[in-house]
Amino acid sequence: xxxxxxHVTDHLMRAATFACQAPSLHNSQPWRWRVDSDNLDLRLxxxxxxxxTDPDARLAVLSCGAALHHARIDxxxxxxxxGVRRMPDSMDADVLASLWIRGRSxxxxxxxxLCQAVAHRRTDRRSTPGAPLDHDKLRTIQAAVRREGADxxxxxxxxVFALAQASDRARGVEAxxxxxxxxxxxxxxxxxxxxxxxxxxxxxxxxxxDRAPGRAFRQPGSTLIEESxxxxxxxxxxxxxxxxxxxxxxxxxxxxxxxxxxTGLGVSVLPLSIFVEVAGSRDMIRRLLxxxxxxxxxxxxxxxxxxxxxxxxxxxxxxxxxxxxxG
Length: 327
Hints:
Layout: H1 2-19, E1 31-36, E2 39-44, H2 58-77, E3 80-86, E4 95-104, H3 109-118, H4 135-147, E5 151-154, H5 160-175, H6 178-187, E6 188-189, E7 198-199, H7 208-211, H8 213-217, H9 221-227, E8 233-240, H10 245-264, E9 267-272, H11 274-277, H12 279-288, E10 294-303, H13 319-322, E11 323-325
Parallel strand pairs: 1-11, 6-7
Antiparallel strand pairs: 1-2, 2-4, 3-4, 5-8, 8-10, 9-10
């Protein structure tokens, strides 16, 4: 029995390590895993929440949701049947999920393919997407998002003008806020903690990268319109019905499922968080959804370039910084 338990614990440890490859807001990696015998608990690491950009930790929880999905598919691809309880502690909202192994099951080939895509997943920050996208692929990505409990609204070309206006409004608010600028500069180009942040090498080439990497990171609205010309890029809104932590956690799981599906289909993804960071721009995006659903993130889809997965990867914290083994 003890040997079996050790075997299970080893797989949970591997799943937590695998999950740390998940995308996160400005590569902040705001998760903390606890491996305890046959349980794997996920907690929000408040010390890596961006207090000015994300004061309510919405995007941090979404990032943790992406990590949770990574852990789930790693275990499924290894032939483990799991149970998940989200928001398990009514007294502590920072405890986001508890995952446990229920027994062996046939290896899930679809999850195995998603796991394989993790090694090739990148954030595509290039400024000039190329060939038009295959909309059948976009519908497949949309279906993957929906299976995880969120939704994806693909925007029509004419709606990109409203998206551009929302982008410029958010850029204006952030540019006028010194605290926002200081925080952004700390995570983009030169991270406050080694192993986190978005390095200069991962930013699109241009004169702003050396002088103001934070500004190079934020696209003006005119760029969004240009990218959508001739369908070279398609924009979409990841959305759902609620604004509780549970909703944002599920949205992160859906983001992971959609992004990894896109990677496997040769579709690149750029998450654009600026639209939900500023209340005014968030309301503008919400109107594109009819005013009822809540936007969690805007995504840009484009045809992946050959050799795109050779681009520099964002760094990662050492496992001992994000994973603790009980006992």
